[in-house]
Amino acid sequence: MQTITSTLQPTLQVRGKFRATICKGVVRSWSEMTDRVSRLAAAMAKHGAGRNSRIACLALNSDRYFEYYLATSWAGSTFVPINTRLAVPEVVYWLGDSEAELLLIDDNFLTLLPEIRRQVSAINTVIYMGDGETPEACLNYEAMIAEYDPIAAADISSDDIAGLFYTGGTTGRSKGV
User: Fold this and answer.
1) Global pTM value
2) Exposed, middle or buried: residue 112 (CB in 10 Å: 0-12, 13-18, 19+)?
3) pLDDT of residue 11
4) Cα separation of 96 and 87, whole Å?
5) 8, 87, 140, 176: which sits with the fewest CB atoms below 10 Å from its CB?
C-alpha cells in the first residue's frame, strides 16, 4: 500500500543526494528534507499531534510548507491547508470546523493570530514558520527541528485521512471534504 510518506523511501534510495527543494536561496536534498520532516513530526507529536489529529497551516507556498505536509502525514495526522485568500471569519470557521489542534503560520498571516486565538480554543499549539522574531506564545519551526530527534513514520493505512480540504463555499458554507 502506498502512503504519502512511504513514497519517500524509494526516492531517498535513488535520489537522496539530489535536490528536493529550493526556496529563498536555500537548497535541500531529499535526505536533508526527509530528516527535517521526521524531526518536525517528532516535534508535532510532542505537542499533541497523534493519529488523525488535525494540523492546520496558514502560510504561503514554501519549502517549509512542503515539509509540514509531509511531517503531518509522517506523524499519522491529518493536514488541513487553510486557503490564504479567506477573511478572518472564514479562517476561524475552517479551524473550528476541522477541529485543528495545531496551527502552523508564517509572517504573512501573523496579524490574524490574535483573532484566531480569541475565537478558536481548540488550537493548543501555534508553530511560527517565518524568518522573523518568534511571536509570543508561539513555537519556532526551525528551533523545533533542531531540538527533536527523528522518529519513524507512523504506521498508517489507506483508511486513514491524509488531508481535510474545504470547498469554496460558493453555494453556502464551506465544507470539509
Assistant:
1) 0.92
2) middle
3) 80
4) 14
5) 87
